[in-house]
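Here is one chain, start to finish.
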Amino acid sequence: MAYTGARNSRGQFVRKGGRSAAADKAAPRTVRKPGARAALSRKQREQIFFRELSMVCNVSSALRRSRLGGDPYERRRLDPDFRRRWDEAILESYPLLELEMLERGRFGDTRPTPKSEVEKRLREVPTAVAMQLLRYYHSRVKAAPAAAPAAPRRTARAEAAAVRRELLAALSECNRRMGGNG
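Its structure:
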């Protein structure tokens, strides 16, 4: 504490703000427990929630990690921006979860240590929970309506010609990249 060197009427040193050292000692202090977090704003808790949701694809885990209050399912239903961010986080996390499960199946426990926070968090997800999440996701994808109407069906001959043109264009592009004339 910085004191000015001046004394008050009682002979006590006075701090720059005008309070004495004795007043500082007598003032109650709020002591945080070790490891306790400072209070976070709702916006910060939402950011933590969506970051965690985009990593592990688990709403319960994201809620525990963010300490987001209220009913997030109700908010998702009523708030279009919240629903959009939720859906984006889920769409980002499912491929990561699928890759994690493939890696578990292929390598088991003999994998190298995780290199990022995402890998670390995904390894903490129990296999049974991950399988349930993936099952739910795949059932949701199958039940979702098609995004765009199907194109009119082409005849087999027209379809084969279109595939041939696409293939020739791709081969021509590869040839051009490798130094050919195209």
